[in-house]
Design a protein that fits this description.
By secondary structure, the chain is low in regular secondary structure. A two-stranded antiparallel sheet has the order 1-2. A two-stranded antiparallel sheet has the order 3-4.
Amino acid sequence: YQLAVTRRKEEEPSSTSIYNQNDPWTPTVAFADFINNETITNEDLVAWITTGFLHIPHSEDIPNTVTVGNAVGFLLRPYNYYDLDPSIYSHDGVFFTSEQDFTACEVNPVACLPQTASCLPNFPAFTYNGFQNTSRL
């Protein structure tokens, strides 16, 4: 299971055991037994999340593998929960359609910020070996 949600039970503190590797045919903790089609309405819930990471061996692994910087995590994100992105209704949100000119000051006030703000420096166009005006869009 990548994600399973069950009712919280005191007798189910973990989804596996280190002793499962000794006898995989009769494990000491069988996670499949946690999934028993019981109702979860108005109950305390536990989300069982499968995580992992990919390690590609390289020469620096010898004599031991460095684990500094390794991390495992997860991200819960709704899919098709909203009809559209709810952030477009935020006060600071900007939404453009294909018919609008996003460089026009009436549509996008931020586009005219370099001309109106006195604190922004005015840099010359960037040039390097024949490439010109690459800093301005």
